[in-house]
Amino acid sequence: MSSQVVVGTQWGDEGKGKIVDVLAEKADLIVRFQGGDNAGHTVIVEGKKHVLHLLPSGVLHKGSLCIIGPGVVCNPFVLLKEMDTLIAGGLTCDHIIISDRAQMLMPYHCYQDELEEQAANNKIGTTKRGIGPCYADKYARRGIRYHEFIDFDHFKARLKEVLDFKNKLFTKVYDGHAMDYDTMLKDFEAIRDRILPMIKETTHIVNEALDQDKTVLFEGAQAAMLDINYGTYPYVTSSSPTSAGVTTGAAVAPSKIKTVVGVVKAYSTRVGEGPFVTELLDEQGEWIRKTGGEYGATTGRPRRCGWLDLLVVKHANMTNGLTDIVLTKIDVLTSIETLKVCVGYEIDGEVYDYIPSDQALVAKAKAVYKEFPGWNEDISKMSEYDQLPQNCKDYIKFIEEFTGVPVSMISVGPDRVNNIYVKEIK
Ligand code: GDP
Ligand code: IMO
Ligand code: MG
Description:
By secondary structure, the chain is α/β, with parallel strands linked by helices. It contains twelve helices and 20 strands. The protein has three domains: 159 residues, Adenylosuccinate Synthetase, subunit A, domain 1 (Adenylosuccinate Synthetase, Chain A, domain 1), CATH 3.40.440; 92 residues, Adenylosuccinate Synthetase, subunit A, domain 2 (Orthogonal Bundle); 158 residues, Alpha-Beta Complex (Adenylosuccinate Synthetase, Chain A, domain 3). The strands form five sheets. Strands 9-7-5-2-10-1-11-15-19-20 form a ten-stranded mixed beta sheet, with helices on both faces. Strands 14, 16, 17 and 18 form a four-stranded mixed beta sheet that branches. Strands 3-4 form a two-stranded antiparallel sheet. The longest helix is centred in the middle third of the chain and has 22 residues.
C-alpha cells in the first residue's frame, strides 16, 4: 500500500502542484482532501502552463483517477470552467469524480466572503472565493452537499431555505443586496447534466484502492501556516491543510498514511495579511519577487517575500509528521551573495525555538538568522546532486539538519522535468 500525502509547509505556493504532477506519474488515484478554488497550483509541461484550482494536479496524467474529496468545498461553476479550459487544450476530463459528501460552494458564499472582508476591521486578505463562509455553513450544518443535488426538488427547497437566510444577512447586517433565487436556480439547472455523472461515494473507492496496494496521492492545498488550528490564526484559511486533513477530509485512517512529503520553498512567501517575521520589505524582497515570479496564481496579487524561516518548517514537520522534504525554487536564490535563514524568534528579549500561538507576539518577533554564502552557478539545468555547488549543498544540508527530515528531491525549475532526485519517495 502506498499512500503519499503532499503538503505545503509554509504559507502556500511552495510548488505543490508541480510536485504532485511529478509524483502522479506513478499514482493510481489522486485526491484533493481540503480547501477549494482558493488554491492555485501551477503545472508546466513542455513549456505549456496549466493553473489548477479545484482539479487535482495529477489531472494531466490520463491514467490516474482524480477525486475531489469529501473535505473539499467545491464551486461547481469554477470546476466546469476549469475542465473546459483543459478540454479546449486537447486534454480529457473523464477521469474526475466528486465526493457526494463534498460541500457545494454556492454563489452566495463568494458574495458573503466579499461583504465580510469589506466590513472587517481586521482584514484577512482572503481570495474571495467563498471558502470561509462555505466551511462556516458546513460546521453550522446548513451547508449543501453534492448528494443533495441529485434529487432536484430537494435541492430547490434547500437552496430556497438557505438563500432566504443569506439574503437577510446580506441586506440587514451587511447593507448589501439580495441575490435572486430564480436566476441562481437557472444557473444550477444549466450545469446539472454535466455535474451529476461525476458525483460518487468516494470513501470506499479510496480505501479499497489502498487495501488493494494501489498508489494513492493526496494533494494538499494551502499550507501549515494557513491551518485553521495551528496556523497564524486568524490569518489562515478555514480548513486543515496538514496530513491530519487526509483523515477527516478523505476518510483515511491515520495508520494508513505512510509517506508525508513536505514541499519547502527555498525562501518564504505569503499572500494576504498576517505577521511574516522574515519578510523583506526592501530591494532584496522585490528582487526575489521578480526573479521567482511571485505573483498569486489565483488572484494575481504580488506575494510578500522573505528569507527561509526554518521555525516555520519545523512547525510544519511537527504538525504533519514529514517523511520527506521536496525543496523547490532554490534556483531562484542563485547569485544572492549572502543568504539568511531564520532559526529563532526574539520576542521581548527572549529567544523562542517554536512559534507562539498569539499573533500579537509573533508580530513583535525579530528573526534570529544564520547566514550562508551564496553561489553564482546556474543550477536550473542540473539533474544530479553532485553537480550542485558546495554552498548550495551546505544550504540544503542545514535544512535537513535543522528539521531532521531528509531532502528527497530538489526542484530547480518550474517544468515537470527540472528535478534532482536524491532519495526515492516511497
Ligand atoms: P502551489 O500553490 O504550491 O502549487 O504553488 P504555485 O503554483 O502557486 O506557485 C509556485 C510557482 O513556482 C509556480 O509558478 C511554479 O511554476 C513555479 N515553480 C515550481 N517549482 C519551481 C522551481 O523549482 N523553480 C522555479 N523557478 N519555479 C518553480
Ligand atoms: P495554494 O494551494 C497562498 C491565503 C489567502 C489569505 C488566507 C485566507 O495555491 O498554496 P481564503 O480565501 O482561503 O479564506 O484566504 O489564505 N491563501 C493562500 N495563500 N496559497 C494558497 O493556496 C492560498 N489559499 C488561501 O491569501 O491570506
Ligand atoms: Mg498556489
